[in-house]
Amino acid sequence: MISRSQLQIALASILLTLAVPAIAQDDGPKMIPAPDRGADDGEGPYGRLIIRGATLIDGTGAPPIGPVDIVIENNRIVEVKSVGYPGLPIDEENRPTDATREIDAHGQYVMPGIVDMHTHTGGSTKAPEAEYSYKLWMGHGITTVRGVPSGNLEFSLAEKERSARNEIVAPRIFSYHTLGSGQEYEDRQILTPDEARQWVRYLADKGADGLKLNSHRPAIMAALLEEAEEHGLGSTAHLGQMGVAQMNAQDAARLGLGTLTHYYGLFESMYENHDVQPWPVDMNYNNEQHRFGQVARQWSLIAGRGSEKWQTLLEEFKALDFTLDPTFGIYSAGRDVMRVRNADWHKEYTLPTQWDFYTPNRESHGAYWFYWTTHDEVAWKNFYRVWMQFVNDYKNMGGRVTVGSDSGFIYQLYGFGTILEMEMLQEAGFHPLEVVRSATMHGAQALYDPKGEEIQFGVIRPGLLADLIIVRENPLENLKVLYGTGAVKLNDETGLPERTEGIRYTIKDGIVYDAEQLLADVRRMVAEQKAERGEPVEY
C-alpha cells in the first residue's frame, strides 16, 4: 500500500512538473505559515536611518562609488549622498544629520536587495515550515521572490499580504499560479479558451500577480496571455516537454508570454533537421532519468551560434521585450552531481526531510540519480556551453535576463541556490555588474512592467523602497562572499584558512534584519529536526 507521504510526494511531482494544461489543479502540499514577527525579529523602520560611509553598487550597472551616506525615512530611500573620496578623511560637516539610527558601513558594500524570480516554499514532504525558506532567502539578501507558485493560491496570497504588512520575516512576495489554481477550481476542468479566460479573471480578482504557465495548446495559451495582459498580470512559463512540440519558446513569445523560465522550448525553436527531439524509442517521461538525461542531448541538434536561426530568435525575443530567466543553477548537478550533492551548506542548513526528498528515488521530483553516468555529465556540460552562449548573446544585445533559482529540488537549497545562479551568470560571460543588475533592477522591471508601473525596488535611489543589503566584502570581486557559508580565504597572519563573513544586514521595507541571526535561526531549525530523528548534529 502506498503511504501518505509517498502519495504527497507523487502529487507534488505531478503538479510541479507536468502541469496538465486542461485540468484544474492544487498547487502542491500544504505549508505551515510563518510565525508572527517577534520583537527581536528585525528593527525599524526608523524615522531616519542613515547608512554611513559605504561603497554603493546601485543595481543599474553603474560602477561602484563611495563613500556614500544613504538616508532612509521609514521605508523609503530619501537621499544618497557622496561624502568624500577614497583614502581621504570624510568631512563630517558635509554629511546628513539627525539620524534616528546609524549603521557604520565604512569599508563595506551596499547593493539592492536580490530579486529571485523563480521560487517555491517547500511543502510538507520537504520543508513544511515557510519560516525555513523565508529566513534562508532573507539571510542571503533576497528581499523579493516570485512564487511560481509558493504554495496553493490561498496560502500564497495570505503570506503575500502578511509579508507586505511586515507581520512575518519574509521577502516581498509576488504570487504567480498554475492553470486551475484556487479552491473554486478544485473540481473543475478548463477545456476551452473561454474557460481559461474566466480563470484568469478569477485569479486577478483574488489578487494574484501573474500566471505560471506550461506548454498549453495554442488556443488555450493565447486566451490565457491575452486575458492576463488585459488585467495587468505577468506571465512566465515552463514549456514542459510533453507539450513543447506544439508550443516552443518562439511560439509562446509571439503570443505574448513575458518570461521564459529554464531552457524548455528554447532549443526546440532552433532545430535544424528535426521538428521534435529524437527521443530514444524506450523513452518514458515519467522516468525522470530519461527526462533529464535525454533533454541535454539537444545541444547538437540546433543551428549553431551566429547562424540565421540563432540570430533571428535573439532579435525576435528582443523586439518582443521577452525576458529570459534561465535558472542555470537548478540543473547544475547534471554536469557534476558529486559537487552539488556535497555542497558546504548541506550539513548545517539542509533539513533532514529536505535531504530525504533529494535522495535518489523514483517518486520525488528531481531525485533521478538512478545511475548517472559520465555520458550524462558530458552531455550536460555541452548543453550548458550552448545554453550559456545564447543567454549571454541575448544580454549583449540588450535583452533582459533575470535571476531565478527554483531551489528545493536537485540538491539545491533556498538562498544558496540564488547565489549559485548569480555565479553561473558570471560563468556564462556576464560581468559582475551585469550579474547584480540581473539580480536586482532587471528582476524588478520584469515584475512591474506587466502592471504598467515604474519599479518600486531593485535600484538604490531616492524615492524607491528601502530594500537593500550590506555586505562586508566586495561581491564584485567574489560573488561567493554572498553565500551564508561565506568564501574560504587564507589568513596570512595565522597561516590558516577562514571563511569570509558575508552579508551583515538585510533591509526590507526599511526594517533592518541581522542576516547572521536569520541564518542562525535556520541552523537551529535543522539541529532540532535532526535531534527529533536521532541524527547527529554537525557543525
What would you say this structure looks like, in words?
The protein is α/β, with parallel strands linked by helices and 539 residues long. It has a domain at 4-38 and 112-451: TIM Barrel. Helices cover 33% and strands 17% of the residues. It is built from 16 helices and 18 strands. The chain has helices spanning 4-18, 130-139, 153-164, 193-206, 218-230, 249-255, 288-295, 308-319, 337-341, 346-349, 352-358, 374-396, 416-428, 432-439, 441-448, 515-532, and strands spanning 46-56, 65-74, 76-82, 101-104, 109-112, 114-119, 142-147, 172-177, 210-213, 234-237, 259-261, 323-325, 400-401, 468-471, 488-491, 496-499, 503-508, 511-514. The strands form 3 sheets. Strands 1, 2, 3, 4, 5, 14, 17 and 18 form an 8-stranded mixed beta sheet that branches. An 8-stranded parallel beta sheet has the order 6-7-8-9-10-11-12-13, sandwiched between helices. Helix 6 (249-255) links the parallel strand 10 (234-237) and strand 11. Helix 2 runs antiparallel to helix 16 and helix 4 (193-206) runs parallel beside helix 5 (218-230). The longest helix has 23 residues, at 374-396. It is globular. Residues 1-28 have low confidence and may be disordered.
Secondary-structure map with pairings?
Blueprint: H1 4-18, E1 46-56, E2 65-74, E3 76-82, E4 101-104, E5 109-112, E6 114-119, H2 130-139, E7 142-147, H3 153-164, E8 172-177, H4 193-206, E9 210-213, H5 218-230, E10 234-237, H6 249-255, E11 259-261, H7 288-295, H8 308-319, E12 323-325, H9 337-341, H10 346-349, H11 352-358, H12 374-396, E13 400-401, H13 416-428, H14 432-439, H15 441-448, E14 468-471, E15 488-491, E16 496-499, E17 503-508, E18 511-514, H16 515-532
Parallel strand pairs: 1-4, 1-5, 6-7, 7-8, 8-9, 9-10, 10-11, 11-12, 12-13
Antiparallel strand pairs: 1-2, 2-3, 5-14, 14-17, 15-16, 17-18
Helix pairs in contact: 2-16, 4-5, 13-14
